């Protein structure tokens, strides 16, 4: 049996654009293994960066389980969350892609909170 080097909810992503910070939501890019910030709140989720990714760099992306994420505004405990085009998270609004649920509250902009990811894949907020 082959050795598993990463848990199944971890991936390696290559950043082809400007640097992407830790705790931000990313989506699949055009090329194989590429990651980018979401183009819109309806973009299909991939995961959250668990370390800074410099331009051209390869770093780990978490696609499931619980991860520390960066908020763009206050988020209440257990709220469903969406990701903005800057990679930060907010309470989900109608027709946005839901990335998961806030397992701890976020105090405000750039506040860290524990996000339980529901992806990769897309769930739409009612």
Average of pLDDT = 88
Q: Write down the domain tally.
A: 2
SS-based class:
mainly beta
Order of helices and strands: EEEEEEEEEEEE
Mind describing the biggest β-sheet? 5 strands, mixed, barrel
In DSSP terms (H or I, runs of 4 or more residues), the helix count works out at: 0
Shape: globular
Query: How many β strands by DSSP?
Result: 12
- State the distance separating the first and last CA atoms: 43 Å
Unreliable segments of 5+ consecutive residues:
1-6
Please give a structural write-up:
It contains no helices and twelve strands. The protein has 126 residues and is mainly beta. The protein has two domains: 53 residues, no CATH class; 55 residues, no CATH class. The strands form three sheets. It has a five-stranded mixed barrel. The radius of gyration is 14 Å and the shape is globular.
